Amino acid sequence: MPTAVTRQQVLGFRVRAQQLDRESGSLADTAVLDIGVQDTGSDGGPWALALRGVDVSTVGDELATVWTVRGAPHLYRRADLPGVAAATAPFSEADAGKRIITAAQPLEAAGIGNLAALDIVAEAMRSIVTAPMVKGEMSGRLTAAMDPPFVRFCVPCDATHVHEMPFRLAALRAGLELQPGTSPPVLQPIPGFAPTTTVPERLDVVRAYLRLLGPATPRLVAGYLDAPVKDVRGRWPEDVVEVDVAGERRWLLAEDADRLADPPALTRLLGPFDLHLQARDRSLLVDDTAHSKDLWRTLGRPGGVLSDGEVVGTWRARKAGASVTVSVDLWTRSDRGAIGEQAERLARFRGLSLKAVDFSK
Questions:
Q1: pLDDT, tens digit (0-9, with 9 covering 90-100), for 120-132
Q2: N or C: which end of the chain has fewer CB within 10 A?
Q3: Could you please report the per-residue DSSP string of 264-278?
Q4: For residue 249, what are the CA distances in angstroms to 88, 220, 242?
Q5: 53, 25 in Cβ contact below 8 A?
Q6: For residue 155, what pLDDT is reported?
Q7: Can you give the pTM of this predicted structure?
């Protein structure tokens, strides 16, 4: 019989595995950088690292921003980029087809394989971007260089351009990174980038999910990667142990089995795309349907208030001049003093003063 694991133990495991209880640390020992730190929104990757004790003002060019999982921008250690490119590449032809979404159909009709298509797009991108270039200009040049199966008419843009997901997923294959903080994005060559097929164990995305968001199932990992479950099962680690979470079979890396424990007492203002909120078992984090819809809305997503392992509400920050107001919508009674301290921390991180913390309840 698998060991029964409580929800609280799962939550505690993830908080500690992701080092949300850490006061200080370096890029080298920051675990979430092994799977990538999504850098979306004003409180994106740098804030996620700051919450894990990293002084982001001192890291310089040791971090790099690239499009990887689900086509989203993620932060990684610059030295890891060759391994990251290998680790986040599609596992198979079917996986590539799933990840590029609607682009797969015209490619199939033209007899072009999905993986081959990513290589074709990457080769063209590499030849075009030899110096920093704004995405729009790069896209225009790329579209002009590609055959019809690679392009489509985009209604929102009122223009014809290369399908978005192949564009994003081919960028790292082409050895391109994003200039941090640019909007619209600016792409540039990664200095000295040398592709590899070797994936260091700590960068293996399946293992990283289990290590940081476990216990999990192949379905949950596949949902995070936007990959077929079959491909994830084919790469499932052998050194795992089975546990029971509320009657469901899940797995954990064997080396982590003794790290299951109740959450530490702490409060954090998690960014909207913080890794802790990226777990695909959302009902385990938030079981109320209305609260779940609010926290994980498609547009205008708020951050999550983490208190003693539980997501207890949402928050938003509104800048006005040199100050910021943090609005908090609590779902349950929580330590408002601790939330206020974290709002102060956010303001300092942004280089602003905290004007107020507004609680809706």
A1: 999 999 999 999 9
A2: N
A3: PS-EEEE-TT-GGG-
A4: 26, 12, 7
A5: yes
A6: 66
A7: 0.96
